[in-house]
Design brief:
With about 450 residues, the chain is an alpha/beta fold. The protein has 16 helices and 20 strands. Helix 9 crosses helix 15, helix 11 packs antiparallel against helix 13 and helix 13 packs across helix 14. GO terms for molecular function: D-xylulokinase activity.
């Protein structure tokens, strides 16, 4: 008997993955690929959209022939801030521009001068000023810098919805892609921002729709419209926990997400690198970002040669309460005195300014590094807790596996229950869960997320 599955394409900047989830949301099949980037017409690196398109369609055709599985549904989760531009024939007519591509300062000034200034506009759209990372600015740039190309664009689809188009031939937009620091959505009015109509760009965007589409090949297949990855990764938590919580998703960036804080972003919070994501249910999620994973990587590379240790030696360091007490007694750490001060977290911790010769051992220095990072994490997370306190704090990703970080975080938030959370492929799982009712007759399992409680 064939195993009913939901297929998910999870497209990251580096890794492209395809998963099968069974009805208990266990991964029963996976394959992955990495692509070499190509260049756009300006010589800047970008995703090879033709190669991606070819891999997605050929991979699905290949796995659809596997005899042991019956694919009942298909959905997509990808990185955001990336438009695919199509002509009236549905053909890709422009590069998939990299969101790190430099943006013209002159054009950026023209835009914000026209539409109320950076602070006011950022407040309306919950979008810090980020150049091409505000995907709406890509369309604005093409209109003024490449008008001949712009005139050929029939539809611009965010990357998840482009993948949906490849299978259904239908043009849709999705609120999780639109509502993610794009400059497109007016969070105050809960509609597209008026600049899109004034610039006659709105006509390039497809209608918003989150309903699955049914396509028929050998059998009926339910195809989801796709999700932005940050919003998708939150879904397993929202489905599992009904009490208010904050999730700190850790990697290169540590992003604090509070799905229960619906208070509009203030200009102060925007200056502190806060933004808003949109849930697939259409509700905003207040978020703050800290470049802590990158800071950890840079500083451990600095520690290793000084103490003559390998780069990954930090993985062997155990949490030592006496070291923490010693460091705090010596007043090297200033983090706890900052609590409640409503100061912005620095994107680099104090540790980069510290003299490594004052530390007797690698272990002592590493404990200080984590103390400094947690000091900044405290400030960053409090930005999304302000006026919307919660009782539970979950940490997933790399820092969730770091017992020093987790113990110090529990000490920093003594009034909260602090957990390290582990969920396999949260982004892909979220995309499957979002269309649960369209393919799965079983109840949602209760063991989607593994928790470890850290107590002060």
């Amino acid at each position: 008997m064939k195993i009913p599955v939901c297929a998910i394409f999870d497209i990251g900047k580096t890794n492209k993955k395809l998963f099968f989830f069974n009805e208990n949301y266990e991964i029963v099949f996976e394959k992955s690929m990495q692509f070499t980037e190509t260049q756009d017409e300006d010589g800047d690196p970008c995703e090879d959209v033709d190669l991606l398109k070819s891999w997605v369609t050929s991979s699905f055709k290949e796995v659809a022939e596997l005899e042991q599985y019956e694919i009942k549904a298909l959905n997509f989760s990808t990185y955001g801030a990336s438009f695919v531009h199509l002509n009236s024939e549905g053909e890709v007519i422009a590069p998939l521009y990299n969101y790190l591509k430099p943006y013209s300062e002159t054009l950026q000034k023209q835009f914000y001068d026209t539409y109320g200034g950076e602070l006011r506009f950022a407040q309306q759209t919950a979008s810090p000023v980020l150049g091409n990372l505000n995907s709406g600015m890509v369309l604005y740039r093409l209109k003024y810098e490449k008008p001949a190309l712009y005139a050929q664009i029939h539809h611009s689809l965010h990357l998840p919805q482009f993948l949906h188009f490849l299978f259904t031939g239908k043009y849709f937009s999705d609120i999780t892609s639109i509502g993610c620091h794009t400059n497109l959505w007016d969070f105050e009015k809960n509609q597209y921002h008026e600049w899109l109509e004034k610039e006659e760009i709105l006509e390039k965007l497809a209608p918003i729709d989150s309903k699955t589409q049914t396509i028929t090949s050998n059998h009926a297949l339910q195809v989801g419209t796709g999700l932005h990855d940050s919003s998708s990764a939150l879904i397993p938590y929202l489905e599992t926990f009904k009490e208010p919580f904050v999730l700190i998703s850790t990697g290169t960036w540590c992003i604090s997400l509070n799905p229960f804080n619906h208070i509009p972003l203030t200009t102060e919070e925007l200056q502190y690198d806060c933004l808003a994501y949109m849930q697939y249910t259409g509700k905003p999620v207040k978020a703050s970002r800290l470049f802590a994973g990158n800071e950890h990587e840079q500083q451990t590379k600095r520690l290793a040669p000084h103490f003559e240790k390998p780069n990954d030696y930090f993985k062997t360091v155990k949490y030592q309460v006496e070291l923490i007490e010693k460091l705090q007694h010596e007043n090297l750490n200033t983090g706890e005195s900052l609590r409640g001060a409503r100061r912005p977290p620095m994107q680099e911790s104090l540790f980069g300014q510290r003299d490594l010769s004052v530390f007797e051992t690698y272990e002592e220095a590493y404990h200080q590094l984590i103390l400094d990072i947690v000091s900044q994490q405290l400030l960053s997370t409090e930005l999304v807790l302000h006026n919307a306190p919660v009782n539970k704090l979950f940490v997933d990703g790399g820092f969730g596996k770091n017992e020093i970080f987790m113990n110090l975080l529990a000490k920093a938030f003594p009034e909260m229950e602090v957990y390290a959370a582990s969920v396999a492929q949260a982004t892909s799982l979220g995309a499957a869960l979002s269309i649960h009712q369209d393919w799965n007759t079983k109840a949602l399992p209760q063991n989607l997320i593994e928790l470890k409680h850290f107590v002060v």
